[in-house]
Amino acid sequence: MHYQKKIIEVRVQIFVMILLSFVVTALQANVITNGCADTNVSCTLDELVGGGSIVIDEQLFDGWFINDFSTSATNLGHIDVLALANDPLSPGLLFDTNSEFSVVGFDVIDFTLGFSVSTLNSSTRITGNDLEINGFTFGSGNIGGFINIWEDVFDANGALIGEEYVEADNLSSFFNLYDSATFTSQSQVFVEKTIFLSGGDPLDTVSLDSFSQRFVQVPEPSAFWLMMIGLTVVFVSSGKTRNML
Description:
alpha+beta, 7-stranded antiparallel β-sheet
C-alpha cells in the first residue's frame, strides 16, 4: 500500500515537473546579438545591414538590406533595433529612429527595409505577424503631413503570404496605427516594408519616432500532440494505480 502511494506521488510529481518545464521555458527570454556593440540587447540598423543578426528565443532575424530614396540620406547608425522578448509566443523588434525619419516641408522619407525571420527549432513555426506605429510627431502648426508604412511578407519560395498597412494622416485626422496578418505555418519568412512620410506645407514637420512588429510562433502539431500524449499517459497511469488501492 505504501509503495503504491509512492508510485502515485512520483507520477504526479513528474506530471507537475513537465508542466512547469514548459511554463518556465515559455517565460524565459533569450536574446543573442551578433556583430553588434550593444551585446545581447540591441543593434543599430547599420550593424544589421552590415551582416549583424538578432536571435530572440528561437527566432533568427538576419539577411538585412535597405534601399533609401529619401531627399536626405538616413544615418543608419542612429536607428536602434531592440529585441522584444517579453512575449515568448510573439517575439519581435522595436525600431527607435532617433529622429532619423524626420522631415520638414515637402522633403520625403522613402525608405525600404527588408530582412529574414526563421525558426531555429524544428518543432516551431511562424503563423503570423503584426506591424504597429508606436510613436510619431506632427508639428503643432502643421497644415498636413502623413506617415505610411506598407509591408509584404513572403514565404521561402518568394510567394506573397501576408500584407500590412499602417498610417498616420494629420490632414484628415485618420490614424490606423496597427495591422496584422496570418498565414500557413512557415519555418522562414521574408519581410519587406516601405516607409514613406512627408509634410503638406513648406512649414510642416513630420517625424516617425518608433515602430514595432512581432512574429507569432506556435509548436508544430506533431510536437504538441506528442507532449499531450506523454502527459496523458502519466495522468492515466496514476489514475489506474490509485484505483487499485
